[in-house]
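Format notes (please read before filing issues)

Several people have asked whether sequences and structure tokens are stored in separate files. They are not. Every record keeps both together, in the order shown below: the sequence lines, then the token lines. Line labels are part of the format and must not be stripped during preprocessing.
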Amino acid sequence: MDCIDKSIRRESLRKLGCLPDHGWNLFVQSSNRYSKLLEADSKLFKAQRIEDTVLSICEVTLENKASENALTLFQQLRFYLLNYLFLEDTSEYKSVLCSLDESVYPNLLPLTANICPCILKALLALVRQHRELSSDIVKFLNSIFLALTRILNTPHSSNNNPTHTKTTIFEKVFYASHLGFFFEEIADACISALPQDACLWAMEVCNTILVSDLPCKLIDLHNDSFLHHSNYYAGFGLSYYLYLSSMKAYINSSGCLWYEDATSFWDIVKHRPSSPEEKPFLTQFQSILNLSDKFLSKTGTLRLQEKLGTSCNLFFVLVLKLALLSSSYIGFVPYTYSDWINVLLGSISEDPELLPHLIELMASLACVFPTHFQFAMKRLRLIAIYAPRFDDGNVTYAQLASRKLAQLFNYSSRDTAITSIYQFANLLSPADTPDSYLAAPKERLSISDNMSSSSSQTATVNTISNYLNVIDSVREIALTVNDEKIYGLAISLLIQKFSRKFDSRVSTELVRTLADISTKANDRDFSILVQFYSIQNKMLVKNGDEALTIAICDSRCLIARGTESNSFKRSDLLKSLLEEIIHIGIVRDTPAPELKGYYFGMSKAVQALVECVAGTDWSSLPKEEMYPALFRDMWFTLVINRFRYSVDLGETLEVDLENIAKNSPLLVFEDFGSNFESNLELNTVLRTHIEHSVISQIKSELLVRVPNIDLKPLSTSEICFLSAVLLLESLRCKSNKLSALVEYLLDPSLRDSQLPQSIRAIALYNLTSFVESLSKERRVASSTIDEFQKLLCLCCNRVDCVRQLALECMNYIMETLPHLLGIKEILFSVLELSSLLWKARTEECTDQYVPQLLYKSNKLNLSVILSDIYSCREEVLFQFNRHARSWIQNSSKAIPYQVKNLLESYLADFVDFDDLEVVELGRSLAVELGTRIVSSDRDNFVLPAFGNWTPDTSSEFMAEYTIRQRYSHVDNSILNIEGDMSTDRIDLILNEKSKLFETHLAALKSLEDDILQGNTVSPQRLRNEVRKAAAHAVQEPIFQFSVLARKIVRIPFLDFSPSSFKLGITLWNWMMNQVPSFSSFLISNIIRNWKNEIVTEKRGYFSTAKSKSPLALPMTYSPTERASFLSYKNKVMSQMIPHLLLLQLIAGNFEGFWYGDRQTAKLIVHFMKFVLKKITSMEVNLNVLTRELHFKFVSFGLRIAENLLNSPLGSRFYNLCVDAGLCWFSGMPNWTYGADKLHVAAEISVMRSLRDKLDSFLLRYPLKVSTTLKQKLLIILLNNEMYMLYTWLTPVLHGRNVRMVEPIPDSDAASSPITLEMLQVAWNVSPNIVLYAPKRFQNAPLKQMALNFVIANPFTSVKHEVALEYLFEHYPSGEFPIDRKFILYWEPMYPVSGPVMFMPNVKWNPQLLQYTMRSMESYPVSVTFFYVPQIVQSLRYDSMGYAESFILETSGTSQLFAHQILWNMKANLYKDEAATVPDSIKPILDRVMDKMINSLSGEDKQFYEREFTFFNEVTSISGKLKPFIRKSKPEKKAKIDEEMKKIKLDVGVYLPSNPDGVIVGIDRKSGKPLQSHAKAPFMATFKIRKEKLVDADPEELAVNGTEEEAGDSAKKQTYEVWQSAIFKVGDDCRQDVLTLQLIAMFKNIFNSVGLDVYLFPYRVTATNPGCGVIDVLPNCISRDMLGREAVNGLYDYFRTKFGDEDSIAFQKARSNFVQSMAAYSVITYLLQFKDRHNGNIMIDDQGHILHIDFGFIFDIAPGGITFESAPFKLTTEMIAVMGGSNKSQPFQWFQELCVKAFLACRPYAHYICQAVEVMLDSGLPCFKGQLTITHCLERFALNLNERQASTFMLHLIEQSYANKRTLMYDQFQKATNGIPY
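Then the structure lines:
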């Protein structure tokens, strides 16, 4: 072991001692072994092994050990200390040093001087750590001290033997030295807290030495032959050393006794020292003061100086510190302290080491005794100026003094610090100037009047040294005071004082000082400093001063390192450096002989830039500063100024340029501009004069390095650009970064230029050097792996040329370096990207119209942005998949085993239960290619193909993968019971199994509790715990298995999520395979839990909550929120999928149980019977999203029935299945929800399979007539449902459709086979089947049959609202051929239908009116609130007062409803806008309004008065503005602002158009007059506080429809928005109100089917005749305004605002445009919007198109001229945005969405018309009587089936496509009103 390095051996022992338990025991054994060796032979103490052991014990002691361990360490340290001091372990500790041979003396002291201090340090550490050992250790140390002093006090022997004399002298030197070490360690130990008894002991021993004359007795021992020059001697004599060390220990132990550590008294930053109120140690400190007075007396001073023969100034300074400490404790300071300080200050030239102590002394003196504050401040200031300096690089005395000075400023005003800064800065003037203060004689600046005459002699001051001191002082004061204003002042003054006349050392120090202060300064001062540096460096280019240039460079590097990346300061410095380099390069007019300074200055700026760009994130820098443009110009500057890659001068900076290149942005960006060539030509750098020789040289360099590049067609600017790209990217390639070159082609303007081929050539040139550099590396760095991942992502880029270049590069790399796919991250990236591309491609089938553009991998840091064009995605997938296969196959030939292992690892690392994706291309690719890798057994390949099968290695690959999987998930619970099976071994195994069983059971119980309590359970935890328990359960006997299995089955039901059920079903299947005998137990538990879930929890399909019609939900005036219905879909699907998975599990195992375990099979049969009865009794939620599950239940029931048909149970079970199938059709025919084509295809597939099975049953089995009729009807209904869904799946047959299902023939839409007998049996199953059958088929006889059933069975029909609809359709007068009493109990009609019941065509019928009132009252106010206009119009026909009663009652419950009613009534009082022609309804409205107002009282009345007063104040501004109509806009604006200031804002008031918010603020400067010839409309902005639901249950909202009923889980969050509103006077807004009301209804309808269209029904409220409030659409601009801004067209606007067509922003905006365009187009046709000029069409900041101003709808057009004959506006510019032609994918989306929107709203056509019908007599000009309703219904094409309706809508699109009449109207508007198009 002696051969082991001593440091390694010592560190090993130390680490062993720091280990617990066994490691500590080994350490103790080793220590004891060496101590025994030392006892046996004392000569061994010199061995290095013993020394290492002792030092390791000391180091272990410094760790905080347990008490028993500390005692062992103390014993060891005690033993070794006695041995190294050569003291006998007796009571007197006698020395045995004299017994040693004299020859060992020279080497003895160095050895002990190294070890003994370490032992003392360790012992004192034990005193600090273990108070229980403190007294014993202190007692031992005191004994050592007494022994040493006794030996040193022993007089010299009179023996004249020289050998004996020499030995005696050595002994005294030895022990005197160690006594000094003793005090040194005490002083160091007191820096940290020591116990009081230890401190008191230390003070006692120090006092003993200082009081005695022991040090003076050792004066004669100055024998250099014995003295070891240790750092402990510090260059002093042994006697003086003892004085100094004991005094230092005295000071520290006294400070520790007072403050618990020795430094606190002198650290005036932490606290201000002061005399304590309680003085428990007064005696001790009084004795200290007496001792110090003795030393400081004139007698004591002279005596000590005479004995030691030196001035002893350092000792007296320490005595003075001790005296100050004691007097501070006592609270009295003698005046002699200041005298002593002055005396000592006079000696600093002789003893400069006094200064640190004097500085510390004066600072504490000033703090403790304020009378000495100015005295200390003055002297500290002078020290800061005149203190000597040394070139050792340490902190200067001036810095120490100024630092303490600054700390004292904390105890005075900040003005003191400012004054001092000014005083110091004013001393900075060059020596040759008149105001050079520091060049004056020193007597002007004498430190004290008491200084000796020698110090006052005239002498020339070292001006440079003093300047440097002043600069240091300014820096220290600024940094220590830590005040923003002080920083700014220091920077400002130092910049002002900067002069080139200073010595270079002063200038450079000033520059560096500014850098130290800068990072703490505010941004403004920092910017000033940065500009100062830049200006100076630019000046130095011509007037070279290399030292100053280097200082500026170093300073800027320091600033860059001291600021955070992307902070303002770093960014400011970065900008300054870039601008400086560019400026130097552009304005250079330096003569050739002076080029050296120019290049030197630029190179130093480049070096500073290196530090500045490190870690910079360009995306977060402020875009307005144009950092990429500055970098681009900087590289251009370097290129044209010979800093090129091939020039020697550039190579001198190659490392710096490489670091800049590594973090430099590309020279082009996507927002670079529309024309690349023109941008280059206009570039600031490139348009300067460039010498022809430079251009020629650049060309030749490019051609030499990139031979394939063609420079002939390129301009000078383009050539310089390519040279800059070559320089930048060649340097970047040295850092293994290649992808940047490919990214250049992402810039659209560059792609349109002549440069792409040149960029490609440069990329291929750099590719070879990149590969060569990479091949030389032994290990691929993580940054290089990141680069490969980036390059792989570019191989999937949406831009073709980018993708092709990236693939070309990757192909070359993979061919040259195939081993790269042996790196896990790279191979996994290839596979992950394949999966991402596949997922992106399949999105056409899952979320077609709003495709996800950004795809990220959860496993790796990968992301790709793809086009929204699916054909492009398909091309990307095809190319990448083809190349990926090639890369992996090529690598598998070079490194087959690595690739195979990695492929297996990829498959093994798959997180299988977090994602329900069933197809992952990456995994499939791994399996496919892994099975093709050459086998290790090559003999297999010589076998012929037997049985038409060629041998391959797939079995080997899968075997290896299986083994890997088996052993990678081995659970610790699987115990090895093989081998020794003795009794003890068996007992051990059983005991361990029992413990594991309890552990897993407890873990499962904890999971259960957490789920039941609603605590968050991570999927990882659930997966791990359940897996481990399942692995253990299959090894247990039946009892333990059953206990664990119950938990394993129950937990997924408690969690009830798709991922938990996928996990559970996988484990249940595995457990049944592992232990087949327990299968029935598991299935029975699954069924029991499932049945309990259905009965108690009722989630998903078995929920009792029924989704409401969109007409029964609140209508909102807000934009479409796609997130809300996506959230609803996800919630429903998450609760439906578990049932689907469970059904698949049960159905998949049924056949096996039927033939193997009939009892379990019967259990399944009984469960299915239970489920089917639930369905037939309508105890399920027939949501459109549950269609697949519903018919899968029925299909599985038929499978069971087929096995039971031969039994009595079979016929009944089969009949139950058919009834369950029919029950799906007991509701309104519904489309699907969302754009998931896969889901629709799955539904069609399930229904087709069910239909085929029913057809088979008809042919194979004789059934009852009733069953056969029901079965035939079910087949007809299934055909119709499939036809309807197929139409939805393929709305545009001629377009791009993914073939997912077989086409459904048109014949399936017919209803001719339905007979009365079928309807009769169906009625017995559920009347709704019959009642909703006419809704599915365009068949009048079928509707008549349904009506007959209603008339014949009114009692049964009252539960179904649709039955009343048929009655009204055939008997519109309301005279039904049934008993009127049934009407009272009928299911409530929709609120939109209520007001229609009061119209004259419905004859007076009290029962019908009572039913109407009950229906209206059954809905919450939030629903009826929407129909205020219709409710008010119903008063026109309310002869019995029912409508009036409803208004009054509802107004009493909702003040907001009452206010809206009042405003609407006021708006309907007159027929004209001027309020001159009363409406016939006016008396009724007046009466009702009076009743409503008179009924108000209390808070309701106050609220009414506040609201209407406030609103009247706002609207009155229009009246006051009328005299200003013909005046200028500024005058109008001033008047509005004047009136706005007068408005009083009361609590709770709101805008009529925003009743769901409260006004909390008014922008009183926001008033804006609007254009009008004779009216005075204006716009104003208000701050509105609203509430929104947070974490609301989306399913509950869809069911209940109101926020009030959204459940307890919903939380309301308050938020504020600024809303602008237009206040109109003289314009009838009622028609806009109606139109936007209808648009809101359409929005609800579209949302009900999850249709990806967009509408924004903004709010308009009519408040008086010709008056109203209109909400302003936020963030919108009219197409008219775009035209006035000289925008060529919408497409150009989209490109300008959102970027190139390939950009993500453009594609998102285009998608938004398509969605909104489709919705508004359909509504425009249905409601006949006219006057659609560009002033009435808006574009918002997200690309949506919006319509406003609905003055011409239904049957009227502007001026009666029918210019706009097209169904809707679809101009060429709109088509251009949507792809440019009717063949493009976005336009096909538009077509499909139009068709789907049309299909979705057709079932609600009558209700939409009812909302209009009740308004016919309102006097609105858009109506032509009942003809309006007739025409409106005709536009819905209700006589057509679904496919015919889709064709009809496509024909309308074709008619509108670039219609000439639309263009003519736009031209007409431009000619007449100046509206551009």
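For reference, the curators noted about this record: Residues 707 and 1586 are 67 Å apart (CA to CA). The first helix runs from residue 6 to 18.
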